[in-house]
Amino acid sequence: MRVIVALSGGKASAYCAEYAFRNYEKKDIVLYFNDTKWEHPDLYRFIEDLAKYYDHPITYDSDGRSPDDLFFKQKALANNRMPFCSRILKADRLQNYYVDGDIILFGIGLDEMHRASRLVSAYQRVAVKRKAYPKIKFPLIETNTTSTDIDQWLESINIIQPYLYTLGFTHNNCSGGCVRAGKRQWIKLLETLPDVYRQREEIEEKVREYLRKDVHILKDTTLRNLRLKIESQIKIIFDDDTENISTECIGICNTTN
Ligand code: SF4
Q1: Against a cut of 0.90, is the pTM above it?
Q2: Ligand 1 pocket test, candidate residues 180, 203, 255, most atoms within 8 A of CB
Q3: 51-74 per-position pLDDT tens digit
Q4: 42: part of which helix (H) or strand (E)?
């Protein structure tokens, strides 16, 4: 039996490491991380700080591909309606990694109960298919741990939060340039990490050219058009349905997480 801490790079999943080391034997614990290759350099600093603190290595699991590799392979752009990068680079890998009897810890917060039940259903389906039954646990919910508690815990062990939070992002996934993000997050990315924005914009343009289709990550515009509008100070219309995507990308399978 292993205790797999599903690290996403975010603070909530990092707290699951603390829970694991408090409640299980060190030899059984795996600090598991799916590297999407789009991550901010400070994410690696953060999880390596955790590894140093617990004197326990991070298990990096990746097939070397990034979301843009998948866009060409799948002949599609992932987006909030179709976040296949999360499924392929994260969910599928973890679901193939665990074995019968493993315990998997997910950093789902108290305000995300709906995600916890979706995650349990997803793993029930996978368990039946693979005939390998893991135990899924949600340490934050179980221990009533809030985001303030997590901030205080990080401060107490002298680990600086990931830089993306300091910039005002709510999660630390794919350098803030996540295909599930809404316009407000992309605008924040352009303001705070313009190089990342430009990279995502270039990828989107290349995929459009490759597919010869008017596809885009955002629902109604390309990243290039959004940037040009901002630079020309044209009023941006927000679509509230897609503006509040603020979940950690932990790769819950199927179409959404
Ligand atoms: S954070 Fe976003 S872009 Fe990155 S793998 Fe997850 S869904 Fe895809």
Answers
A1: yes
A2: 180
A3: 999 999 999 999 999 999 999 999
A4: helix 41-54
